[in-house]
Amino acid sequence: MQTIRSLGADLVAISPERPDNTLTMAEKHAIPIDILSDATSEVLKKYRLWFAVPAEVKTLYLEKFGLNLEKHNGAGRWELPVPATYVLDQDGIVRAGEADPDYTVRMEPAEIVAAIRSIVGGP
Amino acid sequence: MIGGTEMSLKGQLKEFDASRKRPPEVVAILRRGIDDVRESGAAGLRIGERAPDFALPNQRGETVRLSERLSRGPVVLSFYRGVW
Questions:
Q1: N or C: which end of chain B has fewer CB within 10 A?
Q2: Is some CB atom of chain B closer than 8 A to the CB atom of A81?
Q3: Residues of chain A contacting residue B80, judged by C-beta atoms under 8 Å apart
Q4: Using the beta-carbon criterion (under 8 Å), do B48 and A37 form an inter-chain contact?
């Protein structure tokens, strides 16, 4: 995070969740990055990351994990993004990134930093 | 930190996932779910493609516009499923 900022880049997180009402305003101000709420999944779809949770997985979440996505996302919204990370240059061009439906796979922080360095021309 | 400071994020996530010791039938359902999504073609943006602009509210209800952020510097976008 600090490395990203020190290179002049910004980090923005996006989820389909409704804005969190459990945090106080002080707590919200203490969060060092912007956490955006895509409450209509419009952006998820534009980025081709949107999917409807398969029926079998929905049942598993509800019955085994006690996880009701509607509580987080809103009524009828059994939908999620493919977890993804994109490094954008100042023209908005994707210079590096990774999107994988396997939520245990994420882009390496070192790769993110390397991509930013190649954009800003640093060492 | 799981597995020491030298381990990659991918390594840490794999270890964490294994440490949950889920029953095989649960793992099978999750695997099939992942395969379904892969087949759905939700593959995200390609390298070299321009990221669509958007404006969304942040945790304080302020509107954040991607193009405005890009005017200040490179941006790392992270799409995640939720806090659960």
A1: N
A2: yes
A3: 13-15, 81, 83
A4: no
CB-based contact B75:B67 (threshold 8 Å): no
Q: How many domains does chain A have?
A: 1
Instruction: For B2-52, write each residue's pLDDT tens digit.
Output: 444 567 888 888 888 888 888 899 999 999 999 999 998 899 999 999 999
Can you say whether the dihedral through the CA atoms of A95, A111, B78, B55 is positive or negative? negative
Please state the φ and ψ torsions of residue A11, each to the nearest 5 degrees.
Answer: -120, 130
Q: What is the DSSP string of A55-110?
A: HHHHHHHHHTS---HHHHH-TT--EEEPPEEEEE-TT-BEEEEEE-SSTT----HH
CATH of the domain at A110: 3.40.30.10
Its domain, for residue A72, covers: 2-120
